[in-house]
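User: tokens in, sequence out, please.
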């Protein structure tokens, strides 16, 4: 059950800001149901949800948001090389437990992301 103060604070903001962030400190063992409700609330009210599993992580999020509040979006988006291997590396290393060496192996074995996606479990 989401506390009423979250709804009150969102209602209090109205539409006065382009970016509205909900910073959620996750400090309970069974997070699925409460986090689902917080996620639903943030989506329904056009808010960005940031979850931190420690107070230090939440503090780093606050620091980062404050540092970048007046910077252009392309500054924090980063630059990606245009070559195929760099783009494949960027896409596949987003998957947990896939490292750059795995990407090189997959790329040289299968040739393309399409062929990796079509590969059977035995081939992988």
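Assistant: Sequence out:
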């Amino acid at each position: 059950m989401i506390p009423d103060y979250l709804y009150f604070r969102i209602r209090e903001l109205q539409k006065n800001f382009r970016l509205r962030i909900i910073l959620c400190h996750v400090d309970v063992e069974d997070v699925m149901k409460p986090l689902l409700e917080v996620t639903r609330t943030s989506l329904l009210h056009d808010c960005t949800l940031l979850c931190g599993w420690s107070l230090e992580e939440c503090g780093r999020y606050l620091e980062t948001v404050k540092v970048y509040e007046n910077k252009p979006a392309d500054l924090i988006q980063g630059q990606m090389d245009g070559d195929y291997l760099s783009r494949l590396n960027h896409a596949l290393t987003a998957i947990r437990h896939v490292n750059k060496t795995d990407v090189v192996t997959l790329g040289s074995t299968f040739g393309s992301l399409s062929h990796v996606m079509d590969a059977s479990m035995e081939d992988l």
